[in-house]
Amino acid sequence: MKKYIAHAGIHLGSTLATQNSLRSIEYAAVAGFDFVELDVWITSDGVPVVLHNREINATYRKKDNYEMIAENVNACEKTYSELCEGYIGKADNEADRAIIPTLSEALTLCKKLGIIPMIHPKADDHASTACIMKVSDEAIGKMQYYIVSSNAACDYVLAQNPNHPCMVIVKDKNGIDKYSENPNVIIAIRRGADYTELVGYAHEKGHQVETTLNDDVHSDYIADVINYDYRSPGRFEKYEDVISEAFDDRILAAGEEFFFCGKEMCFGTIEASFRMRGKATLTVCGREFTLDAEEMTDFRATVFVYCRKSSLSISAQSDVKIENLKIRTGKHEL
Q1: CATH number of 3-228
Q2: For a tag site, which of 191, 202, 230, 257 has the least CB within 10 Å?
Q3: pTM of the prediction?
């Protein structure tokens, strides 16, 4: 069974919760994710904090009035107290707005919720990685977390312990060969012309493979670990309130539309799977995908629903044939 990473937690663009916040970790656990990715920077007074970008402006606001921050605020140039006193995280509901969490707080919550942390040291230096490992070991224990990097962090960790769980981003077979003696390394491969070949080669070497999916709707992914962005699905097998609906095969002329509208959900998931030939626009809860297939092709799209009705439409741009259309909706109990 594939495993899933919630990228920076589940936050839906810092609406449901702030990226990399404690609440985003809670939502990732509720939605059934196996891992949560935590981006980490270190403040000027040496505190590792969970934050996506070095500058906090995109995901934080002024604490006293919730206004946008006019000047760039670099978390690494502030003490942790200064960050806590001056800034609050973005979220639609005031109750979900919180201060920047420390790495120790985030890891303690991950352990409580049973979700595995994947820690991404964003600074490319050994001292930062060593600091992050020390805090992580103290918070949840050695080797109870993954280190993720496209920089030197994983190499530093594996030099200390070749068996430490890591996920490394590689570009070619030489990159895979580099970690052939490290059994607990997941190989992250970004999709391109040689994607399938590299996945096969990594599997031959005994590694699990991770890939990131953002705006694709095809279902033929051969990775073992799927890293979704904030639009990503939950795990239907991990919650009970699931409705499955099947629809008759149909042909749409150019300009015609198929439309589905389900129940309103505070927090849930909608997934559609079908075969299609032709050109069409697929819209799932306001999120658009462009489909273009000369032959009958399998498609799958899965999107989180937050405070809206689950809906789906297929708008034909040419004559379109649709087969085996199935729609599942699931409500996450908060």
Answers
A1: 3.20.20.190
A2: 257
A3: 0.88
